[in-house]
């Protein structure tokens, strides 16, 4: 094969990978386009359901008092009303849960659209609650949050830090797909004038990579590790995108092997004006660094 033909073959392969990645991202974007409208359209009915449920519960107390005053005590009536009250309370809890989930989606959307000074602990807590919409995460993954108190705000646009952290979390979920133990830990703290975030999963590890830096290359992926066409493929875009989004802000992302599995560690420099106020954070998370 001539050198020119070989080069053309590599270029064609690269373009094909680009098209596959774009198709995958475009497919996922369709649902995302409607999230804001879905939340907006659902908020009104859910608020109305909440108010109606509260009114029903309050009216049942009045109904009981009227019955006792006019017909005397009835064990059968009391039992029936208790069952009704229990059902209404369950209905109210379900409505409140749905409303809370929708609020978390819209909160994340607002941070992504308008956020500049980011509360890392709050953002991570919200993102993990939103990730409960992922059925694998909800039903199979045990999660643990170890968030240090008083983490300073970081100055990174929400439209850049949210996708970056999303990719790191999703990468951990992908790694745990076939793992016998599925545990995901998120830790935060401050060390040496840096906000540090550590995502640790008990997944497939670094898959024999001698140099983890290789995984940050565009389209570098060995997932799935089988030829089963039914398994969702991994395009090798997430780690590349996460580093690309955060690097302009002085952030670093590294993969590390640890006793529990694999950790993705994000280090974010603090703004100069807050560095002096966090010197006590030097003792942060020595157990994980």
Supply database-style keywords.
single chain; 289 residues; Heat Shock Protein 90; elongated; 8 helices; alpha+beta
Task: Please characterize this protein's 3D structure.
The protein has 289 residues and is α+β, with helices and mostly antiparallel strands. 54% of the residues lie in helices and 15% in strands. It contains eight helices and seven strands. It has helices spanning 3-33, 35-71, 75-114, 120-130, 135-140, 158-175, 238-246, 272-275; strands at residues 117-118, 142-147, 154-155, 183-191, 194-201, 252-258, 261-269. The longest helix is centred in the first third of the chain and has 40 residues, at 75-114.
Number of strands: 7
Helix content: 40-55%
Percentage beta strand: 5-15%
As residue ranges, the low-confidence spans are 277-289
**Number of structural units classed as domains:** 2
Judging by the overall fold, what is the CATH architecture of the largest domain? 2-Layer Sandwich
Topology-level CATH name of the largest domain? Heat Shock Protein 90
End-to-end separation in angstroms reads: 50 Å
Q: The biggest beta sheet, please? A: 5 strands, mixed
What structural class is derived from the secondary structure elements? Answer: alpha+beta
Biggest β-sheet: strands ordered side by side in the sheet: 2-4-5-7-6
Quick one: CATH superfamily of the largest domain? Histidine kinase-like ATPase, C-terminal domain
CATH class of the largest domain: Alpha Beta
What pattern of helices and strands is seen along the backbone?
Answer: HHHEHHEEHEEHEEH
């Amino acid at each position: 094969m001539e050198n020119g033909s070989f080069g053309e073959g590599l270029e064609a392969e690269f373009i094909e990978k680009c098209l596959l990645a774009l198709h995958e991202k475009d497919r996922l974007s369709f649902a995302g386009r409607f999230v804001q409208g879905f939340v907006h359209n659902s908020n009104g009915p859910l608020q109305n359901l909440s108010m109606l449920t509260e009114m029903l519960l309050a009216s049942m107390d009045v109904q009981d008092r009227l019955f006792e005053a006019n017909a005397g005590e009835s064990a059968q009536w009391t039992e029936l009303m208790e069952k009704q009250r229990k059902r209404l309370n369950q209905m109210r809890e379900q409505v409140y849960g749905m409303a809370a989930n929708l609020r978390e989606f819209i909160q994340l959307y607002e941070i992504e659209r308008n956020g500049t000074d980011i509360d890392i602990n709050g953002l991570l807590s919200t993102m993990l609650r939103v990730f409960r919409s992922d059925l694998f995460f909800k039903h199979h993954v045990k999660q643990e949050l170890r968030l240090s108190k008083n983490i300073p705000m970081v100055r990174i646009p929400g439209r850049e830090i949210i996708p970056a952290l999303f990719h790191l979390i999703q990468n951990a979920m992908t790694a745990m797909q076939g793992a016998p133990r599925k545990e995901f830990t998120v830790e935060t703290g401050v060390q040496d004038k840096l906000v540090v975030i550590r995502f640790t999963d008990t997944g497939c590890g670094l898959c024999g990579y001698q140099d983890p830096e290789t995984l940050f290359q565009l389209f570098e992926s060995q997932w799935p590790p089988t030829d089963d066409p039914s398994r969702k493929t991994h395009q090798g875009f997430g780690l590349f995108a996460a580093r690309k989004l955060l690097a302009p802000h002085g952030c670093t992302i590294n993969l590390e092997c640890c006793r529990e599995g694999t950790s993705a560690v994000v280090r974010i420099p603090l703004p100069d004006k807050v560095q002096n106020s966090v010197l006590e954070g030097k003792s942060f998370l020595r157990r994980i660094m």
